[in-house]
């Protein structure tokens, strides 16, 4: 029997007359890296905000870790990394970590250990006392990831985690994802970068608020006779005919 970390059931979202999500059905397994792939405006961010408990659907329901969202005790079991870095630039990285840890009740020796562990994971140990205002964009993204990991979440939700990051740093971040996944963390990542999509166990292709296909990268390419995920996306989206 499959164990679902997330079950999205007929979810629709309206902002006024604008439909952002259209009848989304999706199950995500415990322990997998699941990618939501699509262009800007496809609905990816709205969907992951709902899964994180930061928004609610107009209709349908999102079941996360066995409970219908939003639910406070579930939110505390999720690590969420937004597209924009929510950091205090006039504080050091360590002070940022200490502030956000207080939201999860972390303190004392446990907090000290977790700060060391997450900063090592994102390769920022040598910069822990540096002011965030002196961090590069890539360092800020990695610090945001460290903050999302502080409370050892069962589910990690990452919205465009490597946007604007150079290839070397992107590889470091994905190495961290793999390490977490090997430890049992389920990861949901949104992206519009095709080579990142290939790194996921399964993908959900999104366009104009709809989920147009779900499968492993190999399945999606094979089904559309495509050499790349980009080609497969175009076929599913109706932009090109299957070969």
Defining key terms:
243 residues; alpha/beta; six-stranded mixed beta sheet
Quickly describe the structure.
By secondary structure, the chain is α/β, with parallel strands linked by helices.
Secondary structure category: alpha/beta
Mean pLDDT: 91
Side by side, the strands of the main sheet go: 6-7-8-3-9-10
From the alpha carbons, calculate the radius of gyration and give it in angstroms.
18 Å
Task: Give the % helix.
Answer: 25-40%
Instruction: State which percent range the strand residues make up.
Output: 25-35%
Give the overall silhouette. Answer: globular
Question: Major beta sheet, specifics?
Answer: 6 strands, mixed
Tally the beta strands: 10
Contiguous low-pLDDT stretches (5 residues minimum) are none
| Total count of helical runs of at least 4 residues | 9
Span of the ends, CA to CA: 36 Å
Secondary-structure element pattern, one letter each: EEEHEEHEHHHEHEHEEHH
Can you give a write-up of this model?
With about 240 residues, this protein is α/β, with parallel strands linked by helices. It has a domain at about 80-150. About 35% of the residues lie in helices and about 25% in strands. It has helices spanning about 45-50, 70-75, 95-100, 110-120, 135-150, 165-180, 195, 215-225, 230-235, and strands at about 5-15, 20-30, 35, 60-65, 65-70, 80, 155-160, 185-190, 200-205, 210-215. The strands form two sheets. A six-stranded mixed sheet has the order 6-7-8-3-9-10, with helices on both faces. The protein has a four-stranded antiparallel sheet with strand order 2-1-4-5, covered by helices on one side. Helix 8 (about 215-225) packs across helix 9 (about 230-235). The radius of gyration is 18 Å and the shape is globular. The two termini are about 35 Å apart. The mean pLDDT is about 90.
